[in-house]
Fold each of these.
Amino acid sequence: MAILNQIRKLEIMHFFISLFFLSPVAVFFYQQKGFNYFQILGLESVFVLAIFLFEVPTGA
């Protein structure tokens, strides 16, 4: 019974971690620093690519 409770907690934690609240808000901060949209999208692309590359070998 305790294992099912832990699994439920892990599922909820994974759901909230996988939400990217920071990405849309970060655009405004990047614009304040002088980045244009092309540079911002480039940074976001690198971020997503890094997540993809490092998630595959370490994923369960």
Amino acid sequence: MSDVSITEEKLSLAKVDRFLTLYLEDEQYGLDINMVKEIIALMKTTPVPKTPHFLEGVMNLRGNIIPVVNMRSKFNMETKETDDRTAIVIVGIQGSDIGFIVDRVEEVIAVEENQYSEPPQFGTKIDSEFVSKMARVDNNVIMILDLNKVFSEKELNFLDSFEEEEETLA
């Protein structure tokens, strides 16, 4: 067996994860591609009274009512005017669809196990408990978000209540 085939075999055995990369300010984040349902252009949301500050409102996406979270607000970042690169990423979290407003979506990347490191406990604009790990890809460091930790259980139950309301109205 040649050295080339051994190298190819090792590469095929390497665990590779795929992430959608996106930006908030100058910070690059990754979302597990398996949680991403779709990416859409920014669209009008309907504000909902007495909701958390980070909930931009709800939108009607092909007959489904989806809560839309402004990730800048959720991470206590300064507000920014939206532009033609602003997008909504629809993700599935614990059985609920939630839209995330982000500054821009970049690409899908593949990350191998040896490219990960633990997140720092300081120096980022968000609480590092939301970051499951850091990935080194080319010359970039990408913070991999753990969407199950971005929201508290109480917040997820609240966001999930929009889907339940929609079901009772049908």
Amino acid sequence: MRIGLVGYGKGGRFFHAPLIASLPDATFVGVVTRSAERRRELLADHPGVAAFDSLAELAAAGVEAVAISTPLATRRALILQAIELGLAVVSDKPFSADAAQAQELLEAAERRAVLLSVYQNRRWDSDFLTLRKLLADGVLGVISRFESSIERYSPRSVGKLAGGGVLLDLGSHLVDQALQLFGPVARVYAELQYASPQQSVDHGFFIALTHRNGVVSHLSGSCLQSTPRPRFRLSGSEGCYSVHGLDGQEAAVLAGLTPKSAGEGWGVEAEDCWGWLEQGERRERVPSQRGEWLSFYIAFQRALVGQSGNPVTAGEVLANAQVLDAARLSALEGRVVVL
């Protein structure tokens, strides 16, 4: 696979480029960025990977696929352009401003028979994979409540939020994970937080989802929270699993590591980061599964040659967008939204 990248800000530089550069049987052809600073960073990070001024130039260099990691305001037009060029697309999240825009992009890809996927890398977080294993093994019994949270204290982020704030930025991941675990949603209740009356986008959110199978998911995110909740707390009839802190792959890429450079150490969590299984006085460590962000791109690569399905399907993308739309409506009108 010959693949390129559009955008070399934080998302492109740290969350896409290290994985693309680590892909077996793939060539990282180049990056679209006009910024002189970004081009210097690209040269230092990935010598030999070319910089391009436009997506059209990147396509002319012979790529088959492109990852698009630009601000949400520019993403729709770039995705449509890539589709018209016949390129397979990995879109960063948030994928769209709302469900209507998501539908438009998905239909455009379907008409052109182009593979379009969304970068839900947190399906391959170590803690999420651990949680899925516990559910598959039936360790927790009948599940009643799922709590999932990504909260940070980063005041500098408030002024940089755009295109839906933390709800779309982090909520896209948390809603996707809840849907993966417990399926379709019947009811949505949400609250949004704003740093000031002048702030046009949220810096924090809380969403309560009632799944059709009866499980309740409580999801929250913030960039102004000094005391974060557990990353996950999953309560069942036979016990509760909880874990604090973020999967270590984020810290690894921000430190300049890649799956290729880290080798067998990639995605391995230290024992003091493992979660806990508890019931009454019983309390024991649960070894974390190995994090596997690269698995998204490997699955995308296989889908491109017809060896497997899309790692994030159109139906999953649309269901996510519909829940986020319902959350915005719920927060605006102060009511439960029925789907």
Amino acid sequence: MRVLRGRDSRPSADRGHTAALLAGASDGTPGLRVWTPPRQVAFGRRDAREPGFERAKRIAAERGFEPIERDVGGRAVAYPGDTLAFAHAIPLGDGSGSGSIAARYERATGAVVDALRSLGADVTRGEPEESFCPGDHSVRVAGGGKVAGIAQRVRGDAALVAGCLVVTRADARDIADGTAAVYGALGVPFDPEAVGSVAEADGPNRPKPVALALEKAFIDGPWSDGEPRIDRVDRDD
């Protein structure tokens, strides 16, 4: 498994590194990336079809978030700086037991929950109503706000299981504020109180230990070949 660490300070170039992982999976090499993307709002394909999309992008930019469009997921996700993204590129059709879409969601959600619980965070599957990037495959603080959401991009030869993970209380507040404005422009229901964080769940209030635990959970999982090869990209912090 190729494990990529670090980030590029330019969101468009940073996305290229994740695309390269998916290309590698198409050639039979699984890949993994857990990182803190540069400050941005990543809009989904559903957002781009909304009449308020251009206004939503302007609002994001006015708040210091670079607006980008992504291939995975349906609704916008804000990354203030300490919020993690993760991407697991999985070869398909190679006899590796990559499984169905449902099986990949199940295993990925389990990996996130297990990683956070290993750090002492009280989390569970599911999400509150009117949360950011709403979907069926999410992790939340037990009795509290949404911490992580997961989506998939599937090609004929590979799949990318990707998601976001809110770590700090400060980022949770920033996400709640920015998402309220952006979703308002898009006409998407949103409750700012539905944003949680790993810190709120009594886990770490820093991204690094969370990133390492999540990386380990995927490396130790059934899609890994057990031999991680660590690569790095340049980063600005």
